Amino acid sequence: MIENGKISLLQFGIAVYMFALGSTALLAPSIIVSIAKQDGWISVIFCMLVIVAFVSLWSRLSKRYPGQSMIQYGERILGTWPGKLVGLIYIWYFLYLSSLVLRNLGDFITTSVLSQTPIQFVHIMFMIPVLYGAYLGLEVIARTGEVLFPWILVIFSVTILLLLKNIDPGQVLPILPDGLLMPLKGVYPLLGFPISELVVFLLVIPFVKGQNKIKKYFNLYFLLAAATGACIVFISISVLGVDVTARSTFSVFDMAKEINVGNFFERVEVLVGGIWMMTIFVKLSICFYAANLATAQLFNLRSYRVTLLPFGMFVLALSILGYKNTAESAWFITTAYPIYSLFHGLVIPALLLMIGKLRRLKG
């Protein structure tokens, strides 16, 4: 078997939570607020209904074909060559997503933390542990997320407590001045980033213990991530205001700069940046691992590890060539990317489920 590891339901749920936050919490607040203004946090709440629908679709596919990934049952449903074409589409998507996540991290580090450091160096240094994690397998990636998860909760909770005196609820008023139209528009970029991206877990689900409870844990931790995102957007608006949040590339990092306790406890934004480095590491590791696992399953390789190094070099190159700057990234996320990502996260899985039912195929 290409992958022999097994992970628990808790590890699966934590991986979903950290993947969903990932680079989303770093970039999404400014993008959402630029569209929905002070109602940006309501846009994230609306996404919860969408999340339930997506998880229901993915869970039905996994339940119908137990023990198989979408690469494997894709060939069975569509036939050999159409199925292999779909597999190639997903391999490219996972590699491209890996490059985007890596670039998000590189932009954050070189813009806000180490401004004199070449972005290529940051990418290489971060990609080395990702390669090693993918080499060790799914169990190690899941355990890493399990270890980092409590630290994320502690740092996030402490940050919120320290920002309480800076929160101005008047910044989020008036609520829904233009009705539901603007919050609904704010949902659009979130459909692709990160909701549709979690289709990657269709390759992870076959290795989770307790298959009958996967949907419950998927929904629970995905919705928990959405609630965390709504809280982040609400506090960003309350502390920085709508205009500053919309203009700031990394509004969460700028928000943490406002922490000042007694003129001696300040400049703690690096700790907040550490949260996103942890979540981005888990997200990137899962994306990169999935690309290699999908390749091994598609071409019947003995091990997924044979493609780690070439794919790693490809992701490094693509992360530099993907887009020119953060402004171009924000434009891409709010225009074309949701459509591109929905094709992988919604359209293809829905077609696989529908064709499988028509052909009366089951696992």
From TrEMBL:
Keywords, in A-Z order:
Germination, Membrane, Transmembrane, Transmembrane helix, Transport
Listed InterPro entries: Spore_GerAB (IPR004761)
Major location category of this protein: membrane
This entry carries the following GO cellular component terms, namely: membrane
Q: Where in the cell is it found?
A: Membrane
Membrane topology of this protein:
Multi-pass membrane protein
| Any matching Pfam family | Spore_permease
Q: Which GO terms describe its biological process?
A: spore germination
Which parts pass through the membrane? 12-35, 41-61, 81-101, 121-141, 148-167, 187-208, 220-242, 270-291, 303-323, 329-355
Q: What family is reported?
A: Belongs to the amino acid-polyamine-organocation (APC) superfamily. Spore germination protein (SGP) (TC 2.A.3.9) family.
Q: What is this protein called?
A: Germination protein
Taxonomic lineage of this organism? Bacteria, Bacillati, Bacillota, Bacilli, Bacillales
